[in-house]
Amino acid sequence: MSVCCGIDLGGTKIEGVLIEKNKTGFRVIERLRVPTEKEKGYTHILSQIKKVVQLLETRGNLKITALGIGTPGSLDPKTQTLKNSNTVCLIGKPIKKDLENLLGISIEIANDANCFALAEATLGVVPKMAPHAKNVFGVIMGTGVGGGVVINGKILNGRNGIGGEWGHNYLEENGDDCYCGQSGCVETVISGTALELHYQRLSGTKRKLKEIYTLYQNQQDEYAEATIERMLDFFGKGISAIINTLDPDVIVIGGGVGNIDLLYTEGVQRAEKYAFNKTIETMFLKPELGDSAGVFGAAMLVQ
Fold first, then answer.
1. CATH of 3-117+291-300, one of 3.60.15.10, 2.30.42.10, 3.40.50.1980, 3.30.420.40
2. Taking Cα atoms as reference points, which of 26, 34, 93 lies closest to residue 293?
3. pLDDT, tens digit (0-9, with 9 covering 90-100), for 104-129
4. pTM for this model (two decimals)
């Protein structure tokens, strides 16, 4: 039996899974969660990860020899320390090395967007809808915007460890400041957070994106129409840069914004407006694994 072990390290919970992958699909052997308790610091988080590994070994009645971990942030290839993490106690820490010393096993680490992309490319919607796809771009459009590149079933991390980070491509002149230190990033324009802020600025009313989209569909609100039209146009501009650069077979759109059906029709038409090729053959697909994608993708790091 070939078993993969993955851990999704979140800000509030640490989730672990044991997966058996075979020619026809996969089977979840064991899955569990423990609280992250990040307020107790970096060393405590490492001990919580060790706890998950030990529980999985006990419940799965096996010895784990390799572990994939999806993290908030990514490893800097030069320093091998974690960067760009919203769990700030992890920033600058050699988490891969420390965990390998603590657990005595091989560790592979990727950020959560890469794990999402890998999961959907290997276990989720892509094998079912596009089984011959070799080049997959996974998009997360939610509170923030992220992405991951998967080529022939492997994550493309890049020389700087930022492969797929289209959320911080420049998109809007005189745009809002981004936490990354730049302004006008994709994330500041078409994330769910940014779209809600744009609507509030126009209307003076604070609404959730789901409500804004409902108002747009019902043609009840000029500000909702302006917000969704803005999203579609900037999505077309942003994703056309990915198509021009990577020319992926498939783009999978996750996150709350990805639930907006217009992205897969009108959004693609807007991309055709801005892309080098005026007819786009790229498949735009909705994800299949939901909130399981992160932990499943982590397991696939060590398949």
1. 3.30.420.40
2. 26
3. 999 999 999 999 999 999 999 999 99
4. 0.93
